[in-house]
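User: Can you predict the 3D structure for this chain?
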Amino acid sequence: MPQKAYLEAGEIVNTHGVRGEVRVQPWCDSAEQFAGFKKLYWDAEGTQPVKVKGRPHKQMALVTLEGITTVEEAQALRGKILYVSRKDLHLPKDRYLVQDLIGMAVVDADNGTMYGHLTDVSQTGANPVYHMQTPDGREVLIPAIPQVVISIDTKADVLQLRPMKGLFDDEI
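Assistant: Here is the predicted structure, written as structure tokens:
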């Protein structure tokens, strides 16, 4: 699946103060990460850039958008989605965007057996959990740990795993 060049970064949920600042619900790892962006986009095609200055506030980001100077202008933006360029994201090695994982083929790292496709990712305290749908429609939860997930290739759209005992059946 081709990767999107511009990603949904967050939603403007309210105003903050009287000078046009907005409250943004970040859809990235944290409010701190969102507040670090210097340029966002009004559209998913990246044709309408906007300079931003943000700061984290609890789980939200408080953002000043270039050209928005009044509470009335800010109020009109409620519900608007802001986008970030993939080029502005600097992910550490072995970190992936969830949207790049969804739909990946899940195969056995040793023999190439096709197990299914990744359908969702849940964030848990210890490690993420990958949701995979098998060809017969069952959902299997895969712990995203190095002993199980052997490799992820976003270009080939393939996740290789080495199943631990009990992952695909009721073995104990």
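Helices lie at 31-35, 71-75, 98-101. The two ends are 36 Å apart (CA to CA).
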